[in-house]
Amino acid sequence: MNAEQARDQAQENWRTLTRLSIVAAGMFGFGFAMVPFYKAFCDAVQINSLVERDAAPTNTQVDASRLVTIEFDANVRDLPWRFRPLTGYLQVHPGQLVQVEYEVSNARATPVTGQAIASFGPELAGRYFKKLECFCFSQQTLAAGETRRMPVVFLVDTTLPADVNTITLSYTFFEVAGKS
Amino acid sequence: MSAVVDSHGHDHHDHHDHHGGYSGLMRWVTTTNHKDIGTMYLWFSFMMFLTGGAMAMAIRLELFQPGIQFFNPDLFNQFITMHGLIMVFGAIMPAFVGFANWQIPMMIGAPDMAFARLNNWSFWLLPFAASLLIISFFTPGGAPGVGWTLYAPLTVQMGVGMDLTIFAVHLLGMSSILGSINIITTILNMRAPGMTLMRMPLFVWTWLITAYLLVAAMPVLAGAVTMSLTDRHFGTSFFNAAGGGDPVLYQHIFWFFGHPEVYIIALPAFGVVSQVIPAFSRKPLFGYASMVYATSAIAILSFIVWAHHMYTVGMPVTGQLFFMYATTLIAIPTGVKVFNWVATMWKGSLTFETPMLFAIGFLFLFTLGGFTGLVLSLVPIDIQLHDTYYVVAHFHYVMVAGALFAAFAGVYFWFPKWTGKMYDETLGKWHFWLTMIFFNMIFFVQHFLGLAGMPRRIPDYPLMFETWNKISSIGAFGFGLTQLLFLYIILKAIRSGEKSPEHPWEGADSLEWTHLPTPAPYHSFENPPVLK
After folding, report:
1. DSSP-H helix ranges across B17-68
2. Has residue A140 got a pLDDT over 80?
3. Catalytic residue positions of B?
4. Do A35 and B256 touch (CB under 8 A)?
5. How many H-runs (helices) and E-runs (strands) does chain A carry?
């Protein structure tokens, strides 16, 4: 290789080096450019942004947009008991936790065991009436002449159909035979 | 033009007069000769290999039994981090740059690299970078214990050892980028007349493509660690959610570099194996053109698969699927290459000297590692296996049984050309078989650990993982000792090895074998060879 060829070679080499150095520098800039790219991509694809404020906590349990009337009814069947609700009716929101009490008295001179059975009007409302605690879950034994107040804790499910505005909760106490 | 081009004749002793006038240490400090620089890269990489290996021994020592016996968890984390950084950036990459420096000019008929002084500087950056990494152990807080991937936000909390590591990464990146610019320029501009691109040895092709990958990917790593540096000290919030940034952004930027990086490691290994297998099969490489295209396809695809390292960060399914499909696609050109190597051996006249043993070992074990990579590329499976020992097993198969075995094959193969001496073949075979057995003892059982759920990067583990960990550790101690055998083989061969014949390998037919004496003269191809 003569001197002129060597100079051309060197020039060509420097040209290649310059081009490659620009590529390297460009890729370094690309690394930094990835920061706004990342932001833009996440926004475009709607992936969770850490910068967005979380929605304020809202109560999704209670449906405050409607009121439902609950009527309380009490019956006995062949039982010497006086049985009545302490509250005749209540207006509640679906999802709202409610507690009411019933009062029962044993008029007989001996202990009596009874079992309360609940029924609903309209009948379909039973599916949406959630009892969390109820005296109807177990047999109740009253001593002679005893009077007792018993609670029912319930809530009306928020999926109650819109055309049901009144629910009647009706208990009937039956004697449990063979317990005295 | 005569085929013998060193106008000072064959006398092997008078090349000592041409070392730029310097002798001793200054010869090595100031050399611009690609052979000297290649030698320095190779010795440096071997020293780093032993250093990183010592850390691996410490890791496996702690993991030998459940419980914390030797190192507190903080120091253990430093070991696993530095083991990774030193092996990747200090051992494997410089080893293949050493091969590139020695071989590329000789294989294309060029007298030296395009920028000989830049070449010197590219090498000498490395010992400084390595020193920064080692020194970090002795700073308050020690070396960073964050994993070699240097994820934010943990890196923002580390001590000054992290800053040293960031600067080391800058220097290592600078060295790689400058070296790659040198390699590309040399290959594109300085081939001998008649050496068209499609006549180049495949080793040169793989380095050309690797060098492009390096130029494109390394600066991105530099950007990522620079952002970590400014987050640490200059009040930026690239990766800090409280300041409007995102830790996951670091992972994206890192792995955009990180995935091309693993192909940067693998491709030169492919190139070495593509030289060794044809030589010992006494047959030309099967499917030369498809090898070139397959390597290019792997390189291009490597830029669009990065998030397969990130399937569990909360990416939407669409993103996961895209990266899954792209990653499984890379298996195709890789498979082409494996089939071509096998086809090269098919009906070849095979002999099994040490370079060929390592090349065949590579063929089997790299393929195994490729299979486990395919398993990991599948999103539902990776959700289970991410950050378990299955991943550790996978990448050690491809990087150790892949890249390191190829490097061993290359050293044994080209040793006669470099030194004019022959290594002890019996000892070489011992080195191969012991390495093969111990390697599999370490890493095959780690697949089971990963499938059973053992996480990675932990110094202690539940009792149920004890058996495989014991076996793995025993394999590690054996493997480590075996590499000292390799050192002995090399030193013994250099000092007192038998003189190598001119053509020690019958089937080797690239320019350095056909047109240069053995050992290669200090200055070769000062006049370009005539190619038929």
Report:
1. 25-30, 34-62
2. yes
3. 83, 112, 148, 175-176, 259, 261, 263, 274, 308-309, 334, 337, 456
4. no
5. 1, 9
Q: Which of residues 51-70 of A touch B (CB under 8 A)?
A: 51
Angle of the B34-62 helix axis to the B466-496 helix axis, nearest 10: 150
- Cα–Cα distance measured from residue B378 to residue B382, given in angstroms and rounded to the nearest whole number: 6
Instruction: Quickly list H helices, B312-424.
Output: 317-345, 354-377, 379-385, 389-398, 405-419
Residue B302 gets which letter from DSSP? G
**B219 contacts in chain A (CB < 8 Å):** 24-28, 30-31
Evaluate if residue B241 carries a pLDDT over 90.
no
Largest CA distance in chain A: 133
Mind listing the pLDDT tens digit for each residue in B346-377? 999 999 999 999 999 999 999 999 999 999 99
Describe chain A by its helix, strand, coil percentages, rounded to 5: 30, 35, 35
**By the CB < 8 Å criterion, does B216 face chain A?**
yes
Buried b (16+ CB within 10 A) or exposed e, A133-161: ebbbeeebebeeeeeeebebebbbebebe
- What is the complex's ipTM, to 2 decimals? 0.86
N-to-C CA span, chain B: 12
Chain A: closest CA distance from residue B244 (Å): 6
pLDDT tens for each residue of A32-91: 999 999 888 888 887 766 667 777 887 888 888 999 999 999 999 988 899 999 999 999
**Ramachandran class of A52: left when φ > 0, alpha when ψ lies in -120 to 50, beta otherwise:** beta
Given a contact cutoff of 8 angstroms between Cβ atoms, the answer to whether A115 and A100 are in contact is no
**Stretch A140-163: mean pLDDT, rounded?**
93
pLDDT in tens, B161-220: 999 999 999 999 999 999 999 999 999 999 999 999 999 999 999 999 999 999 999 999
Residue B218 distance to chain A (closest CA, Å)? 8
CA dihedral B502, B508, B512, B515 (to 10 degrees): 70
The answer to whether B176 and B218 are in contact (CB under 8 A) is yes
Q: Which has more confidence, B57 or A176?
A: B57
- CB of A43 within 8 Å of any CB in chain B? no
